[in-house]
Amino acid sequence: MDRLLGLITGVAFGFLLQKGRVLRYEKQVGAMLLRDMTILKFMLSAILVGMVGLHILQPLELVSFSIKGSAVVAVLGGGLLFGAGWAVMGYCPGTSLGALGEGRWHAIWAMLGMVVGAALFAEAYPWLERTVYTWLDLGKITLPGVLRVNAWFVIVPFTAIVLALFRLFERKGV
User: Fold this and answer.
1) Distances in whole angstroms, Cα of residue 9 to Cα of each of 15, 103, 173
2) Of 31, 87, 116, 129, which alpha carbon lies 20 to 30 A from 170's?
3) Measured between alpha carbons, how far is 108 from 29 in angstroms, rounded to an integer?
């Protein structure tokens, strides 16, 4: 059943990526140049839906949270590598798969880079775990936990900020 649900949500996500036009290379480049906010709007929408959905489902015991440690140096390093790959290739992992599905064969190079990167990461992981993952490790923290408030006191203002950003983007035509 879990695999079927995974397949259904994966297909739905791919459909939304395609319908949102975020699989297009020009949208990816526009996002990198801060000229087209389509991808940012898509990401922020996904974050909002996920935040609200998870915090509704968690008290019903339909989902449970498994907070990962916050190793700041590792997260920043991984984010820089991810961003560099995205900027160079013009695709992130999800959009490269979607672009290939639409027949854009050049996306295969992004996927090859992901496979090579994953293999290198797997080989380096024991060393990373002993070193980089220990640098500035803040433990298992969340923003509501740090602020010592209920999660909804973070979700509601975040939602208001995102909606205001959406309105600004629409007025600016980006």
Assistant:
1) 10, 22, 31
2) 87
3) 18
Strand partners, 137: 71
**pLDDT tens digits, the chain, 174 residues: what are they?**
889 988 998 888 888 888 888 888 888 888 888 899 998 999 999 899 999 999 999 999 999 999 988 999 999 999 999 888 888 888 888 888 888 888 888 889 999 999 999 999 999 999 999 999 999 999 999 999 999 999 999 999 999 999 999 999 999 988
- Residue 58's pLDDT is 94
Query: Over the chain, what HEC string results?
Result: CHHHHHHHHHHHHHHHHHHCCCCCHHHHHHHHCCCCCHHHHHHHHHHHHHHHHHHHHCCCCCCCCCCCCCEHHHHHHHHHHHHHHHHHHCCCHHHHHHHHHCCCCCHHHHHHHHHHHHHHHHHHHHHHHHCHHHCCECCCCCHHHHHCCCCHHHHHHHHHHHHHHHHHHHHHCC
d(CA 115, CA 149): 40
